[in-house]
Design brief:
Shape: elongated
Order of helices and strands: HHHH
Strand content: under 5%
Number of helices: 4
Distance between the termini: 9 Å
Structural class: mainly alpha
Radius of gyration: 15 Å
Number of strands: 0
Largest sheet: none
Helix content: over 70%
Length: 93
């Protein structure tokens, strides 16, 4: 596996995990489009990437753009962490 494909896989996993968490955070109030019972379970699964965004939206539900920006930064960080912990040893040099 080369470095480019390893980063691709790492960021794909990060995109799915953080993206699902972002969707659940943005859907936690009953007036949101995707609000259902699944939101609670997905929030519990994705707590490590959602605790800051959850706190912001819990304090002020109108701060959705700030939450999207923070989740983007978390996506970049989680992608780097996934690469460093899971794919760095598999990269052929």
């Amino acid at each position: 596996m080369n470095t480019k494909s390893a980063y691709g896989y790492a960021y794909l996993i990060a995109f799915l995990y953080v993206g699902l968490g972002t969707l659940s955070v943005l859907s936690m109030y009953p007036d949101n489009l995707f609000y259902r019972e699944w939101v609670v379970w997905v929030l519990l699964i994705t707590v490590p990437v959602n605790f800051i965004s959850w706190g912001i939206l819990y304090a002020d539900p109108t701060q959705q753009l700030l939450v999207i920006f923070i989740q983007f930064l978390i996506f970049i960080l989680i992608g780097q962490l996934i690469f460093a912990f899971f794919f760095k040893k598999q990269v052929s040099r």
